[in-house]
Amino acid sequence: MSLSSALSVMDRLVPISDFNKGHATKAFERAEDGKPIFVMKRNVPTAVILSYHEYKGLIEELEDSSDFRLAAERIESDDNTANLSRSEALHAMQLNESDIEAAEQLEIS
User: pTM score, two decimals?
Assistant: First the structure.
């Protein structure tokens, strides 16, 4: 580890006692740059402060990873007996392409 990267890591450490001294705002502001702040208690990391944007990005990556893993498991265990083509699925639901185009855009969460 180079000296500059060591200094960069050291700059991201905040003693928990700073929160008792009214310096919490500074720690939160420093986290807004997208880099985590490590809260130290007795020289041991006890918490991490992230910006909301960074947290949301990590959660999305975790969800994407979980979705990918589930899809891979399904593909691997697929015996291909229950798969329908798009046209077969539309026909089974008594829909056509114009129905799909006319439908409102829905967000499923």
Answer: 0.56
